[in-house]
Amino acid sequence: MQLTFILNGNETQIDTREERRVVDLLREDLGLTGTKEGCGTGECGACTILVDGESRLSCLMVAAQLEGTRVTTVEGLEETRKGTLLRRAFAEEGAVQCGFCIPGMEMAAMALLRHDPEPTRERIRAGLSGNLCRCTGYVKIVDAVERAAEDLRCCREGR
Amino acid sequence: MRAVLKPACLEELFSLLERHPEALAMAGGTDLLVRLRSEPAADERPLLLLANVAELQGISDMGNEISIGAATTLTRLIADPLAGLHAPLLISAARTIGGPAVRNMATIGGNVSTASPAGDSLPPLYLLGAEIELASMQGKRRLPIGDFVAGPGRTQLHKREIITRILLPHAEDFPCRTFEKVGLRRSLAVAVTSFAGMIRLSGGIVEEARFAWGSVGPTVVRLPGLEAELVGARLDLGAVRKAAEIVRREVSPIDDIRATADYRRSVAANLLVRFLEGIHG
Q1: pTM to 2 decimals?
Q2: Helix/strand/coil for B280
Q3: Residue A45 sits in which domain range?
Q4: How many domains does chain A have?
């Protein structure tokens, strides 16, 4: 099928099989290897992307579902101020150890901050509850999202 | 190669099902696509996407019942004010399914049709008197949830038929209610045991009680004998202990990788005890 969608802000057309897994389409056909495949069964969150602003698991989607949608992957984060601040917060708070889960964590955090720009730590934990990390123990990841929310607030208030 | 069919309305969906009776209906895909991983590569049954079928979306008030479109996502269900008013127990259960991204994809009709013994929406649906509407080119029919679910992973869904709606009677007056899920972790967990309970008391005396357990039998376990026995009773220590004994005896769990049968018996009984002890009639 000829698939047309908006990928990280750019209109994208690609000839693909309609049942191709979205994670394979992104990584292998489009070369966007930031999105990771962990479990392949929807239990780890490493493959989280945004489709029309909402978090989705790209290992449990087929290409046909993307037709006409707006997709954001971790590579698209630096295109926005929110994404840039989030990435910086993850780096500066030391939230990244091996890094494998981080693209999924960041995309889940983007989805959370969209609905809840000033989340409590408990709500951050709930927002990231579909994402597994086997290195850092989550505290610094929650710190990073809290810091990103704070930085965004300062941005909005012009401080 | 597997084709993907994308009907935009029910009529188109039914005609596709007539032409492709082997097609696999896919709502959120969170169960189906995991199952397909273990199918042989030669399996070429097409996927029939339900997400674009308008008639399968959303929640509406039908006067004496509410209608939940089968392809309504759990995220949408959880946020819906009508569902909040008439089915808070179902919302409590939906919140425990998967994680946020799974709930953005997974649907209520999918959870019902998967008919897992651990399906989290099922115990509340049994207690709320849910009916499942099934439809095909030939017409519609409605089955109570307990009749629709035939066994673990088995339902009364026919070929060329899909679940169109879940219908719930308007809320009845049950001031005491609970849904609890015990899993190995809080998120992305398959229930080790789940429990839904609803009770109405008058002057400290039970007027009506409904209980349902998940993951302690091949399908949801109801104990009508226990519910009947509690009517007219006071929830004193003796009554609660006796009820717990009945639960221990009557549920029929199995050992699996998540827990032993014996542990599940204890949890099933303890969840009832916690519910009953928390009620101050």
Answers
A1: 0.96
A2: coil
A3: 2-75
A4: 2
